[in-house]
Design a protein that fits this description.
Order of helices and strands: EEHEEEEEHEEHHEEEEE
CATH superfamily: Acyl-CoA thioesterase, double hotdog domain
Number of domains: 1
CATH architecture: Beta Barrel
Distance between the termini: 31 Å
CATH topology: Porin
Number of helices: 4
Shape: globular
Number of strands: 14
Helix content: 10-25%
Strand content: 35-45%
Structural class: mainly beta
Largest sheet: 14 strands, antiparallel
Oligomer: single chain
Radius of gyration: 18 Å
Length: about 260
């Protein structure tokens, strides 16, 4: 059966991960993008969250593979200041093991009257937009997963060629069934693909798994498409870095980075 969403709500911050979350390394584990987005959703929707604050950074520590099936999330306010606050969140497996740990930094949005003279500085779009880009699908060995639940269009580079690439991502499904997906969650579900689109190693001979993800946002995305202009560098010690500019159709909205653990298959 084709999934209708990445996650189905089970109540009390519990969710069933569908086949749409399946990642590239195992048929039984998730791509890290959907869990990251689910934690972003928890941060945005937490009880007692102050209005007028925006998530400007989220960092994720991916402690173990996230299995398909039931997961739960927990969120708490860690530190609060007048203009800045830090929020912590965790995603746990059905057995209660922490699979992903996240920290979010939220900054108070300024009042327009206070910032009337502040210029808006946009970094122009340096790659073709989604309408001018070529549709491609990641060549994964299963019929349903993240690669089919996300529409992908490559502005340069390719899903099957190694090296730097820029690609646009659009969700075909809601993050959680019967909900509208926020701009933050649309960025987070795409941002973990930086290493996937810009890999420098042969997927058949090496694994290059990221144990972390950091996302900085200057502003939320406008529109449904989120772009990544990414490149990956590796060291013979088996450590790499995937670095990407985050885009919408107006220009640069932020940056993401992933540390990589590299091993021979």
């Amino acid at each position: 059966m084709t999934a209708s969403a990445f996650f189905l709500p089970l109540g009390e911050q519990r969710f069933a991960a569908t086949a749409a979350t399946r990642g590239p390394w195992s048929p039984d584990s998730q791509h890290a993008g959907p869990p990251a987005a689910l934690l972003g959703r928890a941060v945005e929707r937490r009880e007692g969250a102050r209005e007028g604050f925006r998530v400007v950074r989220m960092t994720f520590e991916i402690l173990r593979p996230v299995p398909l099936g039931e997961v739960s999330v927990a969120v708490r306010e860690a530190e609060t200041g007048r203009s800045v606050e830090r929020v912590e969140a965790e995603l746990r497996t059905a057995e209660g093991k922490v699979a992903v740990r996240a920290q979010a930094l939220r900054i108070r949005v300024g009042e327009p009257a206070e910032l009337a003279d502040l210029p808006t500085i946009e970094s122009p779009l340096a790659v073709p937009g989604p309408e001018q880009s070529a549709a491609q699908v990641f060549p994964m060995p299963w019929d349903e997963g993240y690669h089919t639940a996300m529409e992908m269009r490559f502005a340069h580079g390719s899903a099957t060629e190694r090296g730097p690439a820029a690609a646009w991502f659009r969700m075909r499904l809601p993050l959680v069934a019967d909900e509208e997906t926020s701009g933050l969650c649309r960025v987070l579900i795409a941002a973990d693909s930086g290493n996937g689109i810009s890999g420098t190693l042969d997927f058949r001979r090496h694994t290059y798994v990221n144990p972390d993800l950091s996302v900085h946002l200057r502003r939320p995305p406008e529109g449904e498409w989120v772009g990544l202009d990414a490149q990956t560098s590796v060291d013979q010690a088996g450590i790499g870095l995937a670095d990407a500019l985050l885009l919408d159709e107006k220009g640069v909205i932020g940056r993401s980075a992933q540390s990589l653990f590299i091993a021979a298959r």
